[in-house]
Amino acid sequence: MSSNVHKVLVGFLPSDYPGVEAFESLGDVTYRRYTQDWLKEHIPQFHIVVPHLFEHISSELIEIATNLRVMATPSTGSDHIDTKALANKGVKFVSLNDDRVFIDGISSTAELSWMLTLACARRLPELLDRVNHEQSWVNTDIRGMELRDKTIGIIGYGRLGKKVARYANAFQMKVLIYDIDPDVMNGAPQEVEAVPLSTLLAKSDIVSLHPKLNETSRGMIAHEQIAQMKDGVIIINTARGAVLDSKAALDGVQRGKIAALGLDVLNNEYQSAQLPNDPLITAARSDSRIIVTPHAGGSTYDAHAKVFSRIAELIAERFEQQ
Predict the structure, then answer these.
(1) How many CA atoms lie within 13 A of 154 on its CB side?
(2) Which residue in 55, 269, 289, 304 is the catalytic one?
(3) Using N-to-C axis directions, what is the helix angle for 124-132 and 108-121, rounded to 10°?
(4) 7, β-bridge pairs
(5) Which of 18, 28, 172, 174 yields a CA-CA distance of 20 to 30 A from 163?
């Protein structure tokens, strides 16, 4: 495909994202951290749009994108884009889900999930605060939990769930898994034990969430499910914020049912680069048991350099198929 033919809008700036220049192979690229108002005015001129994860692409925007032929996201998740509206308009949609072999080689999100697991288990925020703010070397009142011989329950045994299971195996933990796909459950390897969701919740010291967001998984961990968990459970969520009921989780922490939350995702993301409107954000400022990171799972130099290049290749392939 020749360059400088298609007009391309990329919501990632080269100064912030290494490797994003790969999109220049597709045509005339505009890099911009846009607003919704800017999009409404300018999106009709673009043939290819690669939106930032912070901005929601609604059906209204897609409807006025009169020249749009391909929309792509350098991620596996796509809940920031109305993909049904794209399909109805006949616009091609590209994501990393189009190349499962490729994304199997990227471990950034799984590694961050394990970082949150360790940080929660060892009460890392309190230890850092003890040294940096209290300027004390006393640690006897901040005892964490050793992972060896503990049980981790992994909900969603896909690409990331499998990676986290391998990390847990390396730490000599018992690994329980639950997945809505019966083939996944029936084909579970001997290193893990496939169990019903109720069993996983009741037996796990740590519950790690990795399902795809859909109507089945939306709100799947709420008051009822938290009540089934062990007292002092740790919950990790690097999937999507909507999988976990924030109010139920906060209530669990405040009652002492949940020992710690490690969250890289929250409800009400994708509105802007501002903090999500989620009660766990406010609580985390004063409660060290709640660790929140800004959806940084895939944010490594290594991952960005790989994914932008691959998404550009997949977009080019879509045009060749037309």
Answers:
(1) 31
(2) 269
(3) 70
(4) 28
(5) 18
CATH superfamily of 108-292: NAD(P)-binding Rossmann-like Domain (3.40.50.720)
Q: To which H or E segment does residue 233 belong? A: strand 233-237
Q: Does residue 295 have an active-site annotation?
A: yes
The token duo for 131 is: 């040294």
The verdict on whether 56 is a catalytic residue reads no
Distance CA 11, CA 232 (A): 41
- Of 6, 52, 123, 240, the catalytic one is 240
Distances (CA, A) of 56 to 83, 108, 227, 257: 11, 23, 33, 34
Helix (H, G, I), strand (E, B) or coil at 120: helix
Please say if 240 is a catalytic residue.
yes
CA-derived radius of gyration, the chain: 21
The full set of domain ranges for the chain reads 6-99+301-321, 108-292
Q: Which pLDDT tens digits describe the chain residue by residue (322 residues)?
A: 444 489 999 999 999 998 999 999 999 999 999 989 999 999 999 999 999 987 889 999 999 999 999 999 998 888 889 999 999 999 999 999 888 899 999 999 999 999 999 999 999 999 999 999 999 999 999 999 999 999 999 999 999 999 999 999 999 999 999 999 999 999 999 999 999 999 999 999 999 999 999 999 999 999 999 999 999 999 999 999 999 999 999 999 999 999 999 999 999 886 556 789 999 999 999 999 999 999 999 999 999 989 999 999 999 998 877 6
Model confidence, pTM: 0.90
The CA-to-CA distance between both ends of the chain, in Å, stands at 12
The residue type of 198 is S
Which position among 47, 295, 304, 310 bears the catalytic label? Answer: 295
- Order of strands, sheet of 70-72, starting from the edge strand that comes earlier in the sequence: 27-31, 6-10, 48-50, 70-72, 92-94
